[in-house]
Amino acid sequence: MATRKNRERAKFLLLNLLKSFFYLALLVGLFLLFRHFSTEEQRYAWFGSIYDNTVLVMGMFVLSEILFGIIPPEVFMLWSLETASIGPYFLSIGILSVISYGAGFLNFTLGRWVRDKDWISRTRFPRLRRYMRLFEKYGGYLVVVASITPLPFSAISLLSGVGGLHPRTYLLLSLFRILRYFVYASILTGIAGL
């Protein structure tokens, strides 16, 4: 029984990792195409007012991380790589990863405060119900998978709080979020150097 459960967990992780690398490859491909087929002046004309406004971009990042990852964090990693607006690249990745980790913990704490699983069944967001079923099936393992794959980390964090995961366990498992940022950042620096 335990072996079957481990195989199921491994399959779940592998499937989500494959999705993750697919989305990363798609984003990087679009980024490289955009960089190749546009001049610096054109890119600035299209995105300059946003691109150069560090406070606005960081505000968008924080809101996105709190509101269930509306914008993929890799977009902000690429922005950081291109602009160095918040410091050297790996320092900025550290800042972004800590913000993401903190946003997840904020949602986890909110979930612990709510602690009412019934509101999930009443919500109009079927994805939340689906993720709650996944949490009930995988428990804290889902936090690890959400930390390193495209599953919405903040939503899973919220549901982990609702589901009663112990805060210390949550904080340890969600450290994989920081690891994800640095692994992806390493991949992006390698690709951007092409």
Structure, explained:
The chain is an all-alpha fold. The chain has one domain (2-192). The chain has 11 helices and no strands. Helix 3 (54-66) runs parallel beside helix 5, helix 4 (73-83) packs antiparallel against helix 5 (89-114) and helix 7 (126-138) packs across helix 9. The longest helix has 36 residues, at 2-37. This is SNARE associated Golgi protein. InterPro entries: VTT_dom. Residues 89-187 form the VTT domain.
Secondary-structure-derived class: mainly alpha
How does the overall form come out from the CA principal axes? globular
Number of strands: 0
Major pleated sheet = none
> If helices are DSSP runs of H or I spanning 4 or more residues, what is the number of helices?
11
Pfam family, one: VTT_dom
Protein name: SNARE associated Golgi protein
Keywords: Membrane, Transmembrane, Transmembrane helix
InterPro entries: VTT_dom
Keywords:
11 helices, 194 residues, mainly alpha, 82% helix
